[in-house]
Automatic annotation (TrEMBL):
Domain of life (superkingdom): Bacteria
UniProt-recorded name of the protein: GNAT family N-acetyltransferase
Keyword field contains Glycoprotein: no
Classification of source organism: Bacteria, Bacillati, Actinomycetota, Actinomycetes, Bifidobacteriales
Pfam families per the UniProt record, alphabetical: Acetyltransf_1
Keywords: Acyltransferase, Transferase
Segments forming a coiled coil: none
GO MF annotation, one: phosphinothricin N-acetyltransferase activity
Natural source organism: Bifidobacterium choerinum
Length: 171
């Protein structure tokens, strides 16, 4: 049986965050970055997540073996004070760790952290054809509030529609 846990990311986690993210960039279908990113840019991104925002590393343990399998973030939604309490969520799980509950664990952890950090609403933007992420949003009670056809390319030069989702946070 696999058990999942998470911790707040620190400087020692930049490599795993960069590696998991770049795997998603190369694979296509989940990010609008067209080329892999460098560790320095991921480190700067991590450093911008000051309280109440944060980045978390997701860990899986199976048969006594622990490994970092992904990361998730609670980020600024829009940097004007009237939006305080509204955040943007993102998560990336390593390809070989998908399909075994890591995404659901991560979403639950993100929503719990949002509540603990005083957020009132969480939003996310995903490729509309990303069935796994769309299903996760629906499962956790998100409402789709927007759809933009032919909006963004991925690294494989595939043009995707974007879907926009929100959920109110129970505090």
């Amino acid at each position: 049986m696999i058990t999942y846990s998470y911790r707040q990311a620190g400087d020692d986690d930049v490599d795993v965050i960069t590696d998991v993210y770049n795997e998603a960039v190369v694979e296509g279908g989940s990010t609008t970055d067209l080329t892999p990113v460098g560790r320095a840019s991921r480190k700067a991104w991590l450093e911008r997540h000051r309280d109440p925002y944060a980045v978390f590393v997701i860990t899986a343990e199976e048969d006594g073996v622990r490994r970092d399998i992904g990361f998730a973030s609670i980020s600024v939604f829009y940097d004007r004070p009237g939006y305080d309490g509204v955040c943007s969520l993102a998560y990336y799980i390593a390809r070989d760790a998908r399909g075994s509950g890591a995404g659901a664990f991560t979403m639950r952890a993100l929503l719990d952290e949002c509540a603990a950090r005083g957020m009132r609403r969480a939003c996310t933007t995903i490729f509309a054809d990303n069935a796994a992420s769309t299903g996760l949003c629906e499962r956790f009670g998100f409402t789709r509030y927007g759809y933009m056809p032919d909006a963004a390319y991925d690294s494989r030069r595939t043009l995707h529609a974007m879907s926009y989702w929100y959920v109110d946070i129970d505090r």
